[in-house]
Amino acid sequence: MGLIAQEFVKPVSDKMPIVFDWTGWLLAQNNDIISGSTMSFTAVGSTDTALVITSPASSFTSTTATVWPSVGTLGMVYNIYNTITTVGGITRTKVVKITIRNETP
C-alpha cells in the first residue's frame, strides 16, 4: 500500500472532490503518464461500508486522479486508495484519510 498523503474532514452530507496528484512522481519516472486508475476505500478499525465514492464516477488525467466521496458514517475515518497504472507498466497506490463530521455552521 501507499503512504497517507493527505487528511481531510468531510461533513457527512457533502460531496467533495479529492484529487490525487501524481505529477512529481510521474516526472521522476521519466515523464510517465497514467493509463488507468481505480479507487477503493476501507473504514479504519471497522467494517463500515457507508462511504460512497462512485457518484460522480472517479476520473483521471495523464497526471491526476479524482474521486468524489459522499455520505459516510458520522465519526468514521476512512482511507481512500488510488491505484494507478502507467503507460510504462508501473502500478502504484496513494492513500488519503477522511474523517466524517457534522455539518459546519
In total, the number of domains comes to: 1
CATH top level label: Mainly Beta
Largest sheet: 4 strands, mixed
How many separate helices?
1
Strand content: over 45%
Strand order, main sheet: write it out: 1-9-8-3
Content-based structural category:
mainly beta
Record field, number of beta strands: 9
CATH superfamily annotation: Immunoglobulins
Please give a structural write-up.
This protein has 105 residues and is mainly beta. The chain has one domain: Sandwich (Immunoglobulin-like). It contains 1 helix and 9 strands; from the N terminus they run ββαβββββββ. The strands form 3 sheets. Strands 1-9-8-3 form a 4-stranded mixed sheet, with no helix packed on it. A 3-stranded antiparallel sheet has the order 2-6-5, with no helix packed on it. The radius of gyration is 14 Å and the shape is elongated. The termini are far apart. The mean pLDDT is 88.
